[in-house]
Amino acid sequence: AGMFYPGNREDLADCINTCLAEADSAGLKPKAVIAPHAGYEYSGPVAGSAFAALAPVAENITRVILLGPSHRVPFQGIAVSGADAFETPLGSIPLDRKAIEAVLTLSRVIELDAAHAQEHSLEVQIPFLQEVLGDFSLVPLVVGDARPEEVEQVLERLWGGPETLLVISSDLSHFHDYETARRLDAATSRAIEALALEDIDYDHACGRAPVSGLLLYARQHGLILKTIDLRNSG
């Protein structure tokens, strides 16, 4: 708050609703979305496209499984939080402790609050979810050094039904000129749609590990991924 997005409740809500209003995601009923996590100045419009797509299913969603990469704390595996709630200027979101305890039985899932304390990849998604969904519980998961199979195990355990939404937090390429970013990101987008996790390098998507886990799950369960928005800030 005050860094990646406005710290004032009213300004934050106005910013999010502007991004949502400008989105064109009609006709989709997603079970999962991949959304970016840069500052809203850069990635807000693309996030708006992702979360606006939830409109047809939002009233059914009561739980969100949120996975994003670790930017500040190196560790092995996937980290849950010991907190009871996460808070943004838009209010407090309770954590689903029962679901968190369920994934803690997996060998590569650990409780590590240090991984969550300053991690923006999860936090920037939450205000959009608050505006679109209203009341819901949250399962926040920071993905460190983890194989796609280990992320996929978590998804298998928490996938649920229409009450559960999966959000994967990932930007794509970083620090390129506009045309280079377009070329690299288009290739990554094609790989995602083709469920070709082997074709996505770490420098092509900072959330490669959670994205790859989703692609592996989709490959095994016959799901389809579709690009609804793709931009860069070059």
Question: What do you see in this structure?
Answer:
With 234 residues, this protein is of the alpha/beta class. The chain is 39% helix and 16% strand. It is globular, with a radius of gyration of 16 Å. The model has no long low-confidence stretch (mean pLDDT 95).
In short:
It contains nine helices and eight strands.
Pick out its properties.
two-stranded antiparallel ribbon, alpha/beta, 234 residues, 6-stranded mixed beta sheet
Major sheet characteristics:
6 strands, mixed
Low-confidence stretches at least 5 residues in length (pLDDT < 50)?
none
What's the overall geometry? globular
Structural class: alpha/beta
Kindly provide the radius of gyration, computed on alpha-carbon positions and rounded to a whole number of angstroms. 16 Å
Distance between the termini: 24 Å
Report the total helices: 9
Helix proportion range: 25-40%
**Nearest-integer average pLDDT:** 95
Q: What's the oligomerization state?
A: single chain
Tally of extended strands?
8
Cross-sheet strand order for the largest sheet: 1-8-2-7-3-6
